[in-house]
Amino acid sequence: MIPLFFLVVCAEGLVAFLLMVKIGPFRELMMKGLDQVKMRRATVLTIAGTIFVILLSDLFSLLKIQNKGSKHGAMTPMDQVIWRTNLLEATLMGFSLFLGFLIDRMDHYMRKLMKLRSNTGASTQVVERLEKEKVQLKEKEEKAAGEVKQLQKEISSLTENLKRLKMETAKKDDQIDTAEAHVVALHKQAADLLLEYDRLLEDNQILQNQLFGYHS
């Protein structure tokens, strides 16, 4: 049992070392291997439970031998050999259980760390994309502001032209009204002149008739 647990402890120590220190592709290989082991979680728990029971049995034997030696004043050479053997087995089994738990936790936190790094990388890409969009939006905003200023200038120019045209139109309307009034006055004057002309024709006709009567 002792050589077997010694090999187990050495193997677990090597796995823990490869998980802690990145050496080529060995960390990824160890994590893939641990995935395969975790797929047989029931078997692993059964083995760990068996080792724990044996550990408790060895601890109980150590206490029993120690109590026996304290009763007799000293342990016999055979009891000392058994006590040391059980102590070595218990130490190796306890250390193997501890290393197994440590490896499990290291694998768990390594996966969390890799996930966080992946998320951080994705977040960095999102931030960079948002920064680019922000710069593009700023450029568009500046361009739109320039266009707005240009439109405001054009609107101001058109407003001034409209005011000028309104003033000119008002002047033209006044001139038209004046011309229309002048035309009306001329029509009235022409009508008066026609009446005066007709009256003069009648007076002329009357005079001619009178002169013709005198000659007769």
Automatic annotation (TrEMBL):
GO biological process, one term: intracellular protein transport
InterPro entries tied to this protein: BAP29/BAP31
Subcellular localization: Endoplasmic reticulum membrane
Job of this protein: May play a role in anterograde transport of membrane proteins from the endoplasmic reticulum to the Golgi.
Membrane spanning residue stretches: 6-23, 44-63, 83-103
Keywords recorded for this protein, A-Z: Apoptosis, Coiled coil, Endoplasmic reticulum, ER-Golgi transport, Membrane, Protein transport, Transmembrane, Transmembrane helix, Transport
A GO cellular-component term linked to this record: endoplasmic reticulum membrane
Family, similarity comment: Belongs to the BCAP29/BCAP31 family.
Membrane topology, as annotated: Multi-pass membrane protein
Name of the molecule in the record: Endoplasmic reticulum transmembrane protein
Stretches of the chain forming a coiled coil according to its record: 123-210
Chief location: endoplasmic reticulum
